[in-house]
Fold this sequence. Notes:
The chain has about 375 residues and is α/β, with parallel strands linked by helices. The chain is about 40% helix and about 15% strand. It is built from 14 helices and 12 strands. The protein has helices at about 15-30, 40-50, 55-60, 75-80, 95-105, 160-170, 175-180, 195-210, 230-240, 255-260, 275-285, 325-340, 340-355, 370-380; strands at about 5-10, 35, 65-70, 110-115, 140-145, 155, 185-190, 215-220, 245-250, 270, 295-300, 305-310. Helix 12 packs antiparallel against helix 13. About 45% of the residues are buried. The chain binds 3-isopropylmalic acid and magnesium ion. The site of 3-isopropylmalic acid (IPM) has 7 residues, from helix 5. 3-isopropylmalic acid (IPM) binds near residues 98 and 278.
Amino acid sequence: MPRYKIAWMPGDGIGKDVMDSARLVLDAMKFDAEYVPCDIGWEFWCKEGNALPDRTVKVLEGTTCALFGAITSKPQDDAKKELAPELKDKKLVYFSPIVKLRQLFNLHTNMRPCKSYPGNPLNYRGTQLANPSGTELMIDQVVFRENTEGMYGGVEFYPLPESVYEALCANPKMKPWKQKGLENVALSTRIVSKQGCTNICKQAFDFAAKVGRKRVTLVEKPNVLRETGGLMTRIFREVAKNYPAIRADEANIDAICMWMFKNPQDYDVIVAENMFGDIVSDLCAGLVGGLGFAPSANIGDKYAVFEPTHGSAPKYAGQYKVNPMAMLLTARMMFDWLGETDRSQRLESAIARVIKEGKVRTYDMGGKSSTMDVAKEVAKYAG
Ligand code: IPM
Ligand code: MG
């Protein structure tokens, strides 16, 4: 019997392209796994009205962990238009299946490393004043994004039920919306918990302590989001006290979007609430070559789903054109989680070597190679 049972979820768009590349490399590395294909994604929303069918959740429960490609997520109205005709009047609500998976399996921690590999023509070079020689800047950051709460918790209303509206009106700040009338108001909530904030801060500091990182930065906005941002900030400061050797500092989400651009090397480990983590992780990815180089791991206490940070890029679907590096780096994060340290190192070295040699590159890196050409080249060194 194979050692691991891996749920295989290509999803849609370029999800299949990049998952095929991962499979080629995993097989070349003789990874001892059985892969269980699972239905998830846009196709199942359109056909069944559920992008994450119950049968998939059942299958996942019996696996070691999951690999995930990408999924198309559209706003509510657009999603409804694409439903099969017989499902159209069933009041079905589209909710991103990856967000749902994170919540269902309590995958509380989203770890998103952004590291530059030497020789990547897309590496950030800073501004001319800050870096007159124009050499590539070596970035090595890890974002810890709270993955189940906050702005993406899914507690939203439109129209608002009376009871919710009335409860909100207890707050004097509701005055402007009271005047606008119920039917003109939509509500998305940002609910955070002490447990959620404590956990994500601890994960970030524990990681920093374990791998010898020197600095953890909280990304928040407590000057405006006084309650949720305030709670997260207080907890961050409290948790930080247990790690006196690590520098703990704070940045506002808006400010970091500027500072990250100016002084990216000032940042090391970053911790943030769900939406701010989503934003800042794309920003960090931009510094290391874009989403084509950004892996991620959704980690819970006993289960994990590994996915590249990028989306499904439907216009490239099936063309085997996109960069598989984010997916391959994601497979590497899976190796780490499984304790497959040797495979993890081999895979990362192979990726670094292919990037450095620069012979096999996808279009985003200025090359003409296909997704699978890159995978084959990585497999050649990793296998
Ligand atoms: C990500 C993506 C998802 C998110 C979307 C597709 C729901 O942007 O993983 O960063 O916001 O979490
Ligand atoms: Mg995102």
